[in-house]
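Lab manual, section 2.4: Encoding a predicted structure.

Procedure: take the sequence of the chain (657 residues), apply the prediction step described in section 2.3, and record the output as structure tokens. A sample record is shown.
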Amino acid sequence: MKRTLYVLVLFSMLAGLGFAGTTQDIASADGSELRIQDIAGRNTYLMSDGSMWSLIDGRHAIRTPGNVAAISGYEYGGIGMTQEGRLVEWDIGKGPQVVPGTSGVKQIAGSYWLKSDGTVWAGDEKAKNLSGILLIANADQEFAALSSNGELLLQDNYKKGQFKKLGIVENTAAVKSMTVHSGRVALLHDNGDVVVYETSNFDDNGRIIPVTVAQNAAHIVYASSEPTDLLIVTLQDGTVWTTGEYKDRWKLKEQITGLSGIVKTSIYGDAKDLSEGFYAQRGDGSWVHHKEGQNKNIDVPVVKSLSVAISDATPYVGESLEVSIQETYTNGAKIKVPVKDAGIDIEKPYLLSMQKNGTLKSAGVGKTQITVTSGGQSKSVTVSSSLRNNLKYAKQVNGNVMVPAKSVIQALGGTYSAKNGSVEANFGQTLLSFKAGSNQAKLNESTIRLKAAPVNDKGELLIPASVLSDALGAKTSWDAKWKQAQISLGADAAMTVVSSETAGLIKKAMQGNLVKYIGRTYWVNEFEDLERFSKLTVTDILPDDKGEFNVIFKSASGKTVKSYPMRSSEVTQLFADRSSLLTYDPYKKYKWSASVWKQIKAGQVSLGMTKEQVQLSWGNPAAKDITSGGGKTIETWGYSNFNIVSFVNGKAILIMM
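Recorded output:
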């Protein structure tokens, strides 16, 4: 019955939603500020702590923790390598993942990867006719390799596995990096020299002539351009240059204005030219996107807001609560945060406690604030707990409401100890002490006068309910109609202490309204851990001595099932709540396959499910968004735990958990 999910923040329905993932605070493992280490494309970053930002479906940014050391590709896919030399892959449908069985990866370039044993691989396929390789380059469907014996090789575009030897490099150990494009291979040496080998530049003997096009270089990369592809050269003085067209391709022709203090550049992995600009890293580790002479800073994605949802903000004492945490980043990503990775501060820990499994458990009647901190942001929510079952017995003596001391104090989350004729009650930092027969009590270090002295009654110590107002700010009252005491600490934090007369009064007045449910048949949705969609028939509704009711059911097999004690209003709510009990046989109403029913009973959803199937499996969404266009109706459901399901013409086409 108490299954309503309380959404404590608003969230976008589809655009910009992030997939579930884990996150860390914006700091590297060594405590330094987190920086972008490399960029493969839009919102596709390698971070200084080895984590990666990438895109799912080209739109949804996710962050994946790890120890990635290098990346190559673009926003729709690519590869990387970890610090331990394992291969990493990502694509349009999944985030970065280590490829099982890979090891010894030394370098990555485009879609190729080089192992420390000198072999070259593309995917899970070993490249033919290559061995003893020291360095590789791959771009624009071109692949080049430098071998340990100095051979500079360029693969034939039309004959995979066939290589043309461009020349012999005398000192391979001095080659820092290489880049390839359209029949050209450029080598960057440790001394800063940039040497280009071009298949169309050869002498009378057919030998390719290496040409030094730049000196004092720090980084090189080829970029597509018309009529001549460009070599982008970052010099050691921090300036960035490009080679020229035609015969000017053999020298640095043009300095890119607006860039200074640069150490390296990165182009879009699928760029046809530089019309979309390129990325450049400054010496201080920061990045800019340069386009048409203008620079735009590329900021490290940081958390700009925090969303927190509690599975039930008004639980009963003893119930466990799930906490869902979601960070919204400056790049639009929305990422779930495990509770263990966030800071949780509970205002009144005697009312609510954190469990080892990451859930919260309500320990007492009252209202307390929970503050969640993650990613440098904080969000507070309030939980108000009530007592499901009434306590007994209260009484009214000379106009004073008297309640049982031990059970009431413990129900309010306090500890109760009696010794030497005195009683001490502890509520966090609040200490209350009193004794039978004395109207003097002590609240922390202050002495207070009670409206009535505590008395022993049939072995039970009764205290004036008014002392709870003094100690906790509780509101207490006597319900003359039902002869019971009401204690509340806010509208949603309450408990009832019945008198010996309450049960008879309630039974007489209320059972008649509940009799109408006897004989009715229901089917279980979520109730009492019973099998979902099993048949139950109400055979009786029995009051107890605390003014509550147990609903008696009979199952289809003839087994008697007794519900937990409920107030009369809760009995009515139970039969009206379709999330608990259904008024129809779902198997007869919906002629679905056995596999679909198996998923629904397990609380699972899958692509292709209808809205009715998803609703029966996960319940009603917290929010809906409906748009139409092109003859299609797109409906998106959002749940308070930040799960998302999108439907096109009534069929689930996207599930984000």
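Check your result against the sample. The first strand starts at residue 36 and ends at 41.
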